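Below is how a single chain appears once it has passed through the pipeline. First comes the sequence as given, then the structure the pipeline wrote out for it. We keep one example in the README because the format questions we get most often are answered faster by looking than by reading.
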Amino acid sequence: MGANLIYIDPYLPNLIVRRASSLYMRAGIKSISMDDVTDECGISKKTLYRCFDKEGLINEVIKQHTQVFEARIKKL
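Resulting structure:
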């Protein structure tokens, strides 16, 4: 028997991070649940957790914001 492979759109993690980032900026990290993120992205909780757990999502949002900030500083 073959393994059950689950296809995840390669753009989905980036979409999740962008939308979660927007939610976090509006309401604060502590105020946003994973249900809020799934609603904003139009995906199921199962799909979200295939990409990120809560801590992983927060870390990725922070990482991406840090990279943007560092790039802007280098241009100064």
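The two ends are 57 Å apart (CA to CA).

See the next section for the split statistics.
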